[in-house]
Design a protein that fits this description.
single chain; about 110 residues; mainly alpha; three-stranded antiparallel sheet; 5 helices; 3 strands; globular
């Protein structure tokens, strides 16, 4: 499942995770509003890897560390996961995918 930065794509990806049972159903949110923070298992599924591989990628800095949302609760920010996936090397070239940098820079300068 390809990952994108758009709300519609993230909504679709997270709805898929909900339907597949990989992520607990959030009853307080409308179905069109995906949660911002997700569990370890859902985060691993979101980036299409096993929880064990996800843990290894956190240790080696390729995936973000969780946010602390309570004394005994941690969760992963979907936006940080998207950014981490964007920075993974593309197959065959060993460099991060920077194909969206021009669009990101244009959007950032339009906001400021």
């Amino acid at each position: 499942m390809p990952l994108g930065g758009g709300l519609a794509e993230n909504t679709h990806s997270l709805q898929f995770l909900r339907a597949s049972g990989e992520m607990p159903k959030q009853t307080a949110l409308p179905p069109t509003l995906p949660p911002r923070l997700i569990t370890r298992e859902a985060a691993a599924a979101y980036v299409c890897i096993s929880p064990t591989t996800f843990d290894e990628m956190i240790r080696n800095g390729k995936m973000p560390r969780p946010k602390v949302v309570g004394e005994h609760r941690k969760a992963w920010d979907v936006r940080a996961l998207d950014a981490a996936v964007d920075n993974l090397p593309s197959d065959g070239d060993g460099t991060p995918d920077e194909s969206w940098n021009d669009i990101d820079e244009a959007q950032a300068s339009a906001v400021h």
